[in-house]
Structure formats: structure tokens, C-alpha cells
Design brief:
heterodimer; A: 395 residues; nine-stranded mixed sheet; B: 359 residues; mainly alpha; 17 helices; 72% helix
């Protein structure tokens, strides 16, 4: 009996092994797999045109880069367009490594959630992938030739995902954040707008500047990216933009801002002509609260910045980052005035567009739920605003 | 009298197997019904389970008899067998949805490119094998598996907490109706106090055991509530769309982005514990049917039950949505009756027993 049991057990183990090891775990042949690094979605005659930047795995005994391809497919839905890419190329489109989704400007004329909802719902892609709006066709961004990286989408991600040591001058947006905003009580979302900036550079091996004819012909254009402006969406429709200063101000009152620099121009000096300064924000403590009562609704924004001077174009000065010197009074004044102006700008844009990117309605819902019913439909016109900005340096 | 379980093993049983089954589809079901108050719905059901547990601890304190003997002594063998048969039906109903949910989870997250039922067949083998074993084996398993549960839970919680916006659960209790609705719809995943009913008479209750059992169950309540709050805080307004909470909750961590999905170590630990957890209803269905139909060949009933569940998964796969709707909308009352009301009513059997003793 014991031998019989052992035989049955062995048979079961063999069967399980057959199930699991006879099909490479059900994996698709790596040579038929297209690893998509970025996707661009454009609107084309009532259809979606999806362009995928693909890193094709290729056996090699050198350390050269894998071949890169940009292929497009069209379809009535984003999912069918991606499927068509696979049909056209014979590759299985693998989206696990896709970290960037670019939306074309034509798409932004309609409700963009029609596109982004697919990426939010499918389990094939990480919903932490960055979402951006292209100023032109989305495909152009993937086809851009940039000196920053061999793969344009990787170069773009460097601009979009600012790590420690870089200015927080680009708004953070990924699929999850965008869709969460869309489905929240304020129905508002945002994403960076990416613009291609042409940059003239000289190709290697071209004649030097001494040869004027050769110099002109040798000028080669390469692309760099600017993502400092922000697109605002209300219920999925683009309703406005934040310029680079307002994007900076938005990041300032919303999160981790330390390490970011602020430029001050023409700061009057008591002993010299006006100076330009570069300040580094060492600490940033924002606080946004909404208080509702029976009679009014108040938005309170308090911002405390601790800054140091990184640079200034003075003839003689020792106010600098490495020394514990107090910030000049005129710098404090100028910085506070500048930031107050930016925050006023943010509030005006919120009122003009109706896009609640400051999440006032959400705060009303969460923290003042008793008055939510009273103010929810017209909270922007009833809103009173108190803003306090305090800039300090070494004391 | 030889006892099959030790109190320590029951405590570990609670910690190992009761929370894990709630980390898969349940959070999205709760979020859909109760929104930011999903954790309150969960807490209500856990409070009922706690009440059940308290009642049964009291019963264990007063008598050494098992549930079957209590029923037999009070109402006769026929009633006892009928109740046990009904419990077998209840356990079979309770087991269907979690198995379908687990199958979907395995196919859609671990084997995305080639979903196939064959990948899930070994689970039925494990379930069948486990149901052949005595409670003693379940106790030993609990002694080991709690480590997997605790490790997996702590890893996933540690990775997800940094992305949680805990203010998103505000306002608390704004919509009472949706809280009750969520609690009712999710009863399939709760009612775990009922297992204690079948531990009665199988462990020796000593002084201080009540405290140990209560503390371990409080640990379950705490861990599940924290998970629900964290889940909603990570996903906020799109929480209802996250069908497989376990895979999703930790992936936004910066360390995951930099290193890769090592959170799957924790996920696999939880899945390992959950394999036993979703086998428990079948285990106890077999346990109850063995009392009703005591057969010499103890493998016949579990084989039939396993094949029955396999047939449901195999042939009714296309009706998964209907099964889910049936379970969520209509079976809540059945689950509540068998997992809360009847176990609490067991207290009355003690009173009768006392009066019998007096007379």
C-alpha cells in the first residue's frame, strides 16, 4: 500500500512538472517580443494612431545598443491600435517596461480619459507610467533626435522625473494620478506639456568656423525637451495651462520643493546698481487649508521658505551659500512679492478655468463635509483667499 | 481525552489564515460599495466575528463537548446531523467565490500571457490532500504558516505606506447606508468566527486561554483594518477598480521603481498562506459531512467535494460574474446566519446543559 501511495505521489509530481515545464511557463519567445519603452497616441480621422517606441531584444556579442524601432498602428480604440502594432510587426507588444505615454494635441481636444482609461485598467502596463501632452503630434516626440540619449523617450523621462539635485519645475503626473484626479470629487487633473526645442549643433567631422561655407552646411539640428508648462484638465477636457512660473509655484505649495532654485532679477541694491540673484530653497513648508462656515468659505495658504543665496552678479559681496550670512532685506521683499504674485496667478487660473488643481473641493469634502452640500456647486465664486508667504534666510 | 489542537495553534491559525483571504478581491468590492468608509464596513463584519469568537470562548470555558455533541445532547442526533449537513452546504457556498477569485488572480497577474486552467489544477490537489488530514495537521500548519503571513504583510505594508494619503478616508461615516451595504455584500469573506465552532471540544481550555485567543483575533482585526485603510489611501477615488489589491498596493514605492518588483516575495508568501485559507471551507465541509455520513474510506467525501468545486470552476467559469452577483447580493443573509447567529446561539445550548445537570 505504501509503495502504491509513493507511485501515485511520483506520478502526480511528474504530471505537475509536465504541466508547468512543457511550455516554457507559457512565456512568449523572447525573439518575438517587442519591449515597448514609450507610447504616443494621436488622433487620426476618428481613429487612434498609436506609435510605440520599441527596444527589440537581439542576441549580440558586443556592447552596442539594441536596435530601436518606432512603429505605428491604428484602431478605433487604443487597445485595438496596440494590438494592430503586434499584427503588423509580428512582435508581441510587451508593455511592462513602458514608462511614458504621450498624448497628442488632437487627442486633448476631446476627453482624454477615453485614451488614458485603457492604460489605467489594463494589467499589461504599470499605471505609474508618466503621462504628458505633446504640443504637436505625439509621434514627433518619439521620433525626435536628441543628444541626451539614444532613445528619445529615455531622454524625455530625464526631463520629466526630476530627482534630488534638480529643480522641481515639472509637474508630476502619471496614469494613476491623472485618473485618480478625474474620478475624484473635483474631477480635475493635470499633466506636463512637452515642447520640442530645436538646438543647433555642429556635427562631428564638419569643417570649423573658419570655413564659413562649411560652417553653415555643418550646422546640425537636434532636439531637446521643455516640460515646464502644465496642461489643466476638467472632467477630462483641457481647459487651461500653467506657465513655467506658475508650475513652479504649484509645486512649491504642493510638495517637496527643497533644492529648487529661484531666479530674482533686478533686485534694487542700496549701495550698488540692481542685482540678479539665484536663491536655493533649503526648506519649504507649505500649508493649504480650507475652512467653511455657514457664511463663508476661506482658502488659507501659508508658505514658509528658508533660502540661501547661491549666486549673484554683484561687484562685491560675500552673501553666499557656503557662508552663514543673512539674506538681504531687499531679496526677502522681492522673493515674497514674486511668490505672492504667482499664487494670485494660480488662484485666478483656478477660478477662470474651473479646474480645481488646488484641490479646494476635495478639502471641503474631506474636512468640512457638513458644508459640502452648501458650497460644492459654486465654491470658486464664494471663495475668500488668505495667502501668507514668509521668506527667511540665516538668522 | 486526546485533544487535536493546542490553544497556541488556534491563535496562529487566526493570524495565518484569517486576514490573507481579505487581501485580494474584497478591498475593491468594499470600495465600490462604501467608498472611503470601506474600512468601517470591514470593521463591522470583524466586530460580528469577534462577538462570535467571544461567545464560543465562553462555550469552550463551560464545556469540553464539541458542537456535534452539544447539538445531539440538546436536540437529538437527527437534528445534529441536519445542522451539520446544512453547515456543509454553507461551507461549499462559502468556498466558491474565493476559489474563482484566486484563479483569476493567478491567471491575470502571474500568468498573463497564457492564462490556462491547468496552472490552477494543482491547487485542487493541495485542497484535496489537506481535507484528508486531521485538525492536528491544520494546527501544525498554523504553527508554520503564520510566519509567511506576517512577513508578507509587513513587507507589503512597509512598501505601500509611503504612497498612502491617509486623509483620503475622510469624512468618516458620511454615508451610513453605503457602509451597511458594503458590510452586507462582503459577508462571504468574513464570518471566520465560525471555525472556532468546530474547534470546540478539540482543544483543552485552560485558564488564560481566552485572553490569548482574544488578543490574536484583535491582531487579525487590526491587520485587516490597517490594510483596508492603506488600500483606500493608496488608490483613493480609483480604489473600486483595483480588483487585485495585493499586486497593486506596493508597486508605487520608490524602492520598487529603482530595484524592481521584489514585493512579489511578500505577495507569494501571502498567496502561500491563502492556499490553505481558501481550502478551509472545503476542509470543514468535509469535517461536517464526515459526521453526517461516517465512512471508513475517508477520501471519498473530500474527493467528491473537490471534484464538485473543480467542476464549478471548470464549467461555470463563464458565469463567474453571475456567481459573484449571487454571492454578494443574495447569500449575505445565509453567511450571516451560519457564521454569526448560529455560533452565538450555541450559548443557549450551554444553558440547557446546565439545567439538564441540575435536574
Amino acid at each position: 500500500m505504501r509503495v502504491l501511495k509513493a507511485k501515485i505521489a511520483i506520478l502526480l509530481v511528474v504530471l505537475v512538472f509536465l504541466f508547468f515545464f512543457s511550455n516554457d511557463f507559457g512565456l512568449i519567445n523572447v525573439e518575438n517580443t517587442a519591449i515597448i519603452t514609450a507610447i504616443a497616441v494621436d488622433g487620426e480621422k476618428d481613429e487612434y494612431s498609436v506609435t510605440a517606441q520599441i527596444a527589440v531584444p537581439e542576441a549580440t556579442n558586443t556592447t552596442t545598443e539594441n536596435k530601436l524601432s518606432v512603429v505605428s498602428g491604428t484602431g478605433n480604440t487604443v487597445g485595438s491600435a496596440i494590438k494592430n502594432i503586434g499584427d503588423l510587426t509580428g512582435w508581441f507588444p510587451k508593455l511592462d517596461f513602458c514608462n511614458l505615454i504621450v498624448i497628442g494635441k488632437e487627442i486633448a481636444k476631446d476627453n482624454v480619459i477615453k485614451v488614458l482609461d485603457y492604460f489605467s485598467k489594463t494589467l499589461r502596463i504599470q499605471d505609474s507610467a508618466v503621462v504628458v501632452l505633446s504640443e504637436e503630434k505625439a509621434k514627433d516626440l518619439l521620433e525626435a533626435s536628441t543628444p541626451l540619449d539614444n532613445i528619445s523617450s529615455f531622454a524625455l523621462q530625464k526631463v520629466l522625473l526630476k530627482t534630488t539635485g534638480f529643480d522641481r519645475d515639472v509637474v508630476e503626473s502619471n496614469i494613476k494620478a491623472f485618473v485618480t484626479g478625474y474620478y475624484s470629487v473635483n474631477s480635475s487633473s493635470m499633466m506636463p506639456i512637452v515642447k520640442i526645442k530645436k538646438q543647433e549643433s555642429k556635427s562631428a567631422g564638419q569643417p570649423d568656423e573658419g570655413n564659413s561655407e562649411g560652417g553653415e552646411k555643418g550646422g546640425d539640428s537636434s532636439d531637446i525637451f521643455d516640460a515646464k508648462t502644465t496642461a489643466l484638465f476638467l472632467e477630462g477636457f483641457k481647459v487651461g495651462e500653467l506657465d513655467d512660473n506658475l508650475t513652479l509655484a504649484f509645486n512649491m505649495i504642493n510638495g517637496d520643493f527643497s533644492g529648487t532654485t529661484l531666479e530674482l532679477n533686478d533686485v534694487p541694491s542700496p549701495v550698488d546698481v540692481s542685482h540678479n540673484y539665484l536663491l536655493t530653497v533649503k526648506k519649504c513648508k507649505p500649508k493649504i487649508t480650507v475652512k467653511a462656515t455657514e457664511n463663508d468659505l476661506t482658502l488659507n495658504i501659508t508658505l514658509k521658505l528658508y533660502c540661501k543665496v547661491s549666486d549673484q552678479n554683484a561687484i562685491k559681496s560675500d552673501v553666499m551659500d557656503s557662508k552663514n550670512k543673512a539674506l538681504p532685506e531687499e531679496v526677502v521683499m522681492k522673493t515674497e512679492t514674486m511668490i505672492l504674485g504667482w499664487i494670485d496667478g494660480l488662484i485666478n487660473i483656478e477660478k477662470d478655468t474651473g479646474c480645481d488643481f488646488l484641490k479646494i473641493k476635495e478639502k471641503l469634502y474631506r474636512n468640512n463635509h457638513k458644508y459640502y452640500g452648501k458650497y460644492k456647486d459654486d465654491f470658486l465664486s464664494d471663495l475668500k483667499v488668505n495667502v501668507k508667504v514668509a521668506v527667511s534666510g540665516q538668522k | 481525552m486526546e485533544y487535536q489542537l493546542k490553544t497556541r495553534q488556534i491563535c496562529f491559525f487566526f493570524i495565518a489564515f484569517l486576514p490573507v483571504i481579505k487581501f485580494f478581491m474584497l478591498p475593491s468590492v468594499l470600495a465600490e460599495s462604501s467608498g472611503e468608509d470601506m474600512w468601517i464596513s470591514s470593521l463591522i463584519n470583524l466586530a460580528f466575528d469577534f462577538l462570535t469568537l467571544l461567545s464560543l470562548i465562553y462555550v469552550a470555558k463551560k464545556t469540553d463537548k464539541d458542537f456535534y455533541t452539544l447539538l445531539k445532547d440538546n436536540f437529538g442526533e437527527r437534528v445534529a446531523k441536519t445542522v451539520f449537513f446544512l453547515y456543509a452546504v454553507f461551507f461549499m457556498l462559502k468556498s466558491v467565490l474565493p476559489i474563482i477569485e484566486q484563479k483569476d488572480y493567478i491567471e491575470l497577474t502571474l500568468y498573463i500571457t497564457m492564462p490556462s486552467l491547468t496552472h490552477f489544477i494543482p491547487f485542487f490537489a493541495v485542497m484535496f490532500y489537506l481535507s484528508l488530514k486531521h485538525l492536528r495537521v491544520l494546527g501544525r500548519l498554523s504553527d508554520i504558516m503564520w510566519i509567511f503571513t506576517v512577513f508578507g504583510y509587513l513587507l507589503l505594508f512597509g512598501l505601500s505606506v509611503s504612497n498612502a494619503d491617509f486623509k483620503s478616508i475622510l469624512p468618516i461615516g458620511a454615508n451610513e447606508f453605503s457602509i451597511v451595504k458594503g458590510a452586507y455584500k462582503s459577508l462571504n469573506w468574513y464570518g471566520d468566527g465560525v471555525y472556532m465552532l468546530f474547534f470546540l471540544g478539540n482543544f483543552k481550555y485552560s485558564k488564560g486561554d481566552g485572553k490569548k485567543l482574544i488578543l490574536s483575533f484583535i491582531a487579525v482585526i487590526f491587520s485587516v483594518t490597517v490594510f483596508m485603510i492603506t488600500f483606500y489611501s493608496v488608490f483613493t477615488s480609483i480604489a473600486f477598480r483595483q480588483k487585485f489589491a495585493l499586486t497593486e498596493i506596493s508597486k508605487y514605492s520608490t524602492v520598487i521603481n529603482n530595484i524592481g518588483r521584489f514585493d512579489y516575495i511578500g505577495i507569494l508568501c501571502i498567496i502561500t498562506s491563502n492556499t490553505v485559507s481558501i481550502s478551509l471551507p472545503l476542509y470543514f465541509a468535509n469535517y461536517t459531512l464526515n459526521k453526517v455520513f461516517p465512512l471508513k474510506k475517508n477520501w471519498i467525501i473530500p474527493l467528491i467535494l473537490t471534484l464538485l468545486l473543480f467542476a464549478v470552476v471548470l464549467f461555470l467559469g463563464e458565469y463567474a460574474l453571475s456567481i459573484e452577483n449571487l454571492s454578494l447580493k443574495y447569500l449575505g443573509a445565509v453567511f450571516f446566519l451560519f457564521s454569526v447567529i448560529i455560533p452565538v446561539l450555541t450559548l443557549t445550548l450551554i444553558k440547557k446543559e446546565k439545567s439538564h445537570a441540575c435536574s
